[in-house]
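hey all, quick one before standup. I had two proteins in the batch that finished overnight and I want to keep them in one place so we stop losing track of which output belongs to which input. First protein below, input sequence then C-alpha cells straight from the run.
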Amino acid sequence: MTEPTAEPTTGPAAEPPAEPKATPAKKTPAKRTPAKKAAPAAAAKKAAPAKKSAPAKKAAPAAETQPKAEPKPKGNEREFDVVLYGATGFVGELTAKYLAMAAPTGARIALAGRSADKVAKVRAGLGAGAQDWAIVTADASDEKSLVDLAGRTRVVVTTVGPYAKYGLSLVEACARAGTHYADLTGEVLFVRDSIDRFQEHALATGARIVHSCGYDSVPSDLGVYATYKQSIADNTGELTESTMVATAKGGFSGGTIASGRGQAEAVMDDRSLMKVTADPYALSPDRALEPDLGKQSDRALSPAKSIDPSLTGWVTTFIMASYNTRIVRRSNALLGWAYGKDFRYREVMGTGKTAAAPVIATATAGVLPVGLTLMAVLTRGWGNKILDRVLPKPGTGPSQQTQDNGWFRSEFITHTSSGAKYRTVVAGDGDPGYKLTAVMLGESGLALAFDESKLSTVTGVATPATVMGDTLIDRLRAAGLTISVERVS
C-alpha cells in the first residue's frame, strides 16, 4: 500500500547457499536444516545450473550477484538512523506517530518531505519525544535531494507513491549509498524495474532494498516463512502447497488505488508488460531456474472446504493475490528454494458462511477482473476525470474510529512432502491498510536500523522474509499482532 505525494521460531533467517545448484531431485522427508549464512556468490549475471546435487542441497539463484562489494559507510558515520520520507501523507503521518511511540530512546530519526513547513506541522503533533527530530527537505523530482537524503541516513522508510512514478530515483540513491530501504509498494512493474536496474548496485554496497513492508505483503511473506521454519523444526519435509485465506475489515487507501491506476496505465501504454504482470514468477531472481508447475491462476471461486475440510463458507478472488504471491515466490528463490522447488502458493479471499456468501463470492470473482480492465481503459483522457471523481483521493484516509474498528486475518493451510499439514495464522486488530500497515512499516524500518546482528546476510533487492524473517516476526508479535503456526496432522 502506498501513500502518494499529493500523499514459532527464533534464530537466524534461512540463507541462500553460496554457489548455484541444479534443481534438486524430489526429496524424502529427511531432516532439513536452514541453509548456512553465506555472502552472495561471485557469479555471472546468468549462471547455468550445475550438475544435480544431493537431495539435501538447495538450488540458489545466480542471476543477481555481484563479484566484489564496494565499501559502504559504517552506521555511526551517518547523521540519522532512520529517515521517514513522505511524512505529510496520510499513511506517512501514521507511520511517524508509530515511530514516535515505538522507536528506542536515543534513536536518530528525521522526517522528510517536499515542504519543511508541512513536515514541521506533522512533527508538532507527535509528542515531546519527537520535537528534536530533524526535518529534511526532499522531492521525488529532485534527484540531488534524494541522493543527499540517502547519504545522511542508515535507513530510509518511504510512503511516497505511486512508486513506479516517484520511487525509482530513491531506490537508486539508496542502492548506490549502501542505505537500507523499506517501502509499501504493491506494484509488480516497479519491483521488477528495481531489480533489473539496481540489484547489482545494492549488492555491491550491501544495501538492503526491502519492498512491500505493509499489508502488501508482510502477512503473506512472513506467514509462509514461519510455516517453513516450523516444518524444519518438525522435520516434516519440504512445503508442497499452501493456500492463504484472507479476511479483513478495512479500506483501500487512495495511494493503493493510485498505484493500481498507474500500473494499469503502464500496461495500456505497452501491452508487452501484461505478460510480465501475469507471470507467476515475475519477480524471480532468475526466471529460467523456476519450475514449470503449469497454470497458477490468481482467480478463485469455490466452497472453502475445497481448500481444507475444516474451513467453512466460500472463497473468491483476492485483489492482492496477484502481487503477494510474486513476493512469496521471490522469497523462496532468494532462499535457494528452501520452501521447496515445486512449492505452489495461492491466495483467496473468504466471503463468510451466510446465505449471501456464495452470491458475494460469485459477484467478486466476476466483477473484479472487469473492474480492473475498466480501470485500465479509463486511464485515458476523460476516463481519468471520472476516476478522479469516484475513487478515494490520494493522501486521504478514514477516521481514527474506523481505523481502530478494522482487523485482518490471514489463515494458511500448508502441506508438506511427508504428508504433514499446518495451519498458520497472521492477524491483527486495526485497519490493515492504514493503522496496521503503519505498524508493519515502522517495525521494518526499526529492524533494519537496530537489529543488524539479527538480520540475514541477504542484501540487494529483497523481501521482508528474506532479510528480516525471525526478527520482524518477533517485533510484530511484541507490537500486538498474532503470528502462530500449528501442525494439525
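OK second protein, same deal, sequence then C-alpha cells:
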Amino acid sequence: MSETMNDFEKQLLEELKFNVSSDSLRRKKKDNAEIRALSLVRHNCVDWLKIDKKETVLDLGGTYGDLCGSIAPRCRKLYILPIDEAHQAIIEERIKALKNAETADIEEILNNKKIKINRAIIHDLPLVFKDREELFEMISTLMDKGIGKIAVLCDCPESWRSHLNISMKNKEKDEIRKRYSDLCLIPEEVTAGIRMPEGYHKAVFSALPDNTFVRAVAKENADTYEGTSFTMLLEKEETPYDEVYRFSNDRAERYSLKTVISSDKVSKTACGIYSIDFLFRMLKIGKELNRQYPDKWQCIPCHREKDALVFDTAKGESLRDMLVRLLGERNEEEYFSLIKEYCEFIRNSHGISYFCPSERFREMFGDVKGLEECLSGTLNNIDLTFDNIIVNKDQRTVIDYEWVFDYPIPREYIMYRAVFYFYKELPDNGYYRKMKKETLRIFTIDKKQEKAFMDMEEHFQEAIMGGLKRSYTINWSL
C-alpha cells in the first residue's frame, strides 16, 4: 500500500478490495466523501456526451476513478491519468474488471504516435491543476495534438466540501480552497482564457446532471451541494447537439410545458390537456406586453402551429452573457451601464401604482409583509431574467414570457429574481459578492426586502410545482 495515502484513501482501497458498492455504502451510512468517491458521480453527464464505441478516451482528472465505470463500457479504449501514486492504486484496483481501461502517463500518451485519442474529459479541476493558467495550457495542448472533442466538467462549489474533509491537513485544505477560488470557472472564462485553433468551437455548455450522487446524499444532508455546475464541449467537428429539450415533470399539471430549442426556432407544447390554456395564453400576452414596453424593448413574436407555440429566434447576445463577460474583464463601467438600463426599463414599465397584495397574489406568492412602499405595474412579467433578454445593438428582445400576471407584483421582485438567478451561477468569491451587493443597491433592494422576495420565490416555486418544496441548494437536473 502506498505510503502517500492518507487514512481516508487507505480505507477506500480496502473497501474496493472487498467490492463494496456505493449502494451498500449508503446503507452503512458512510460519510459523503466516500459515497462520492465510489459512486458513478457523473453517470448522467457521461451518457449525455454520446461517446462512440469506436472512440479512444482520455480521462484527465482520475482521482478515485468515479468516471471509469461510466466511460469504459461506452468506448473502445480508456486511458486514465491519475493525479498521484495514491490515486493510481485506488483506480487500478477499481478497473480490474474493465478490460479496455488502464492508467497512463500524460506525456507517454500524447507523444505516442500509435495512439489516437478521439476525446478528452477533464474534471476534478482543483485537485488536478494549480491554477486556471495550467488548465488553459492543458486544453491548448490537447487541441494542438488534434483531439477533436474536449469536455470540461466543473463541479459546483459545495461539491468540494467532501474533499476538504478526508483527513487532509489544514495546510492542504487551504491549498485546495485557494485553487478552487481560482478554478471555479464559468464557460465564458474558459473560452476567453485559451487559444482556440481554427476549426474548434464551443459546442454547448449546460448544468451538470449530477443526480446519481446528489440524490443519494441529499436525503441525509440537504445542504451538501450548492450552486450550479456546468459541462462545456470544445469540438472540432460540427456539433451533433443541434436540439436541446427542456421540460419539467415536477411542475403542477396545469403549468407543465415541453420546450424544444433548435437553431432556427423555439417551440413549446403542453405536456397534457391541463396546461393547454397556460401555453396558448402567451399568444395574447406577448402582444399586450409590447404595448406596455417602449419601442426599444419588445417580446419575441410567436405563432401557433397545430399543438405547438413556435417562437422566432432572436439574433444577438443574451444580457446574461454580456454581463458575465464584462465581470470577467472587470469592466465595471459597462456592467453597471447595462444594469442601470435594465433597472430603468423595469421601473418605467412596471411601476404605475403602489403594490397592494390580492388574494390571487397570496395564493401564488404567499402572505408577504413589509412591501407596501413598492410599486407595481398592471401586467407584470417576472420572467425578465438576464438570460431571457437578447441584446442586438440598440434593440432588446424578451424571449420568454411564461410567467406574466395581471395583478400587482412588486417591481423590485422582478429585479431581485434577475440578480438571484444570475449570481447563483457564478463563483462565490469576494469580487462577485461585492458586485451583487452593489447591483442590489442600484435596484434599491435592502436586506429586509431580500428576505421577503426570497420567501415569495420559494412560495412561487412551491405553487407551480403543485405543493412540492424545491430546494435552492441542489441542482437536480439539466
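Flagging for whoever picks this up: The CA atoms of residues 218 and 224 lie 7 Å apart. Residues 156-164, 206-228, 468-478 have pLDDT under 50 and may be disordered.
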